Amino acid sequence: MRIAICKTNSEAAALGAAEILTALRRKPDLVLGLATGSTPVGIYQILIRAHRNEGLDFSRVRTFNLDEYLGLGATHPQSYRAFMNRHLFDELNIPPEQRHFPPTEGDRLEEKCVRFEEAIRAAGGIDIQLLGIGRNGHIGFNEPTSSLHSRTRVKTLTPKTLRDNARFYSDGERPPQTAVTMGIGTILDARRIVLQAFGPPKADAIHAAVEGPLSSFWPGSALQLHPDVLFLLDEEAASRLSMREYYRQAWANEEEMRKAGVL
Ligand code: GLP
Fold first, then answer.
1. Ligand 1 atom showing the smallest separation from residue 39 Cα
2. Which atom of ligand 1 is nearest to the CA of 181?
3. Is 172's pLDDT higher than 90?
């Protein structure tokens, strides 16, 4: 795992966006796993600028979102579909039929979840998966005790996640209690994973993900099983990492080796 402890969120976003832009220039039909929440927005803004200012073409890109609420229509402003339109899709030229979300409409959701997984495989698998992390360590909506081999399925949200999300809903509105999320196994199938985390509320989850024991109680720790994960953190999210000076040194060394063409 590679860990960059950044001075600002924008520095982290620039590093995350660079991963995607470099990959897209090499592979115009890149398959992206996308995340919602406040954390990835900086990356999305850089992608939009690259499209607008440099004419970077996204027309062959395929996207698969990590998760979606059950029971919110696609047009509800808090649905993840609406979020993605607002923060990315409305500004890029990815054709709508190339954007995929976990199934939340109609019945027979379990069968539709299997088809969602098949669609990822049919696209050739996810090249880069963007992730945030919840305060309780969830990735996507894989709440604590999610199986480390789980696939796309319905999950019930924990009280902590419900409390974190309550601020997005008006008084009297009942926030969704369930969601459909890629499983931890689905996420681990991605070729590369880029996880961003900012601010003091994420420090425990990052500590557990990077230095904790592998445990379904902290779903982020499953990333220790993946061969190519990049953590992009600010100082606050990194504040509980006991080996943070080592991670800084390792990052600086790697940068130097890259510049020298050794890597
Ligand atoms: C939600 C999403 C996660 C996201 C998390 C953190 O629970 N399902 O994918 O990582 O929120 O959100 P934020 O980036 O706003 O802190």
1. 14
2. 8
3. no
Where do runs of H (alpha helix) occur along 101-229?
109-122, 159-165, 184-188, 203-211
The pLDDT of residue 35 is 98
Q: Cβ(48)–Cβ(92) under 8 Å?
A: yes
Confidence at 171, pLDDT banded by 50, 70, 90: confident
Active site residue 67: yes
User: 198: Cβ below 6 Å to ligand 1?
Assistant: no
The mean pLDDT value for 178-200 works out to 98
CA of 36 to the centre of ligand 1 (A): 6
With CA atoms as reference, report the closest residue to 209 among 125, 132, 126, 149.
132
**Which pLDDT does position 229 carry in this prediction?**
98
What is the extent of the structural domain holding 96? Answer: 2-259
Evaluate: CB of 140 within 6 angstroms of ligand 1.
Answer: yes
Split into its structural domains, the chain has a count of: 1
Domain of 97, CATH number, reads: 3.40.50.1360
- Our answer to whether residue 76 is catalytic in this structure is no
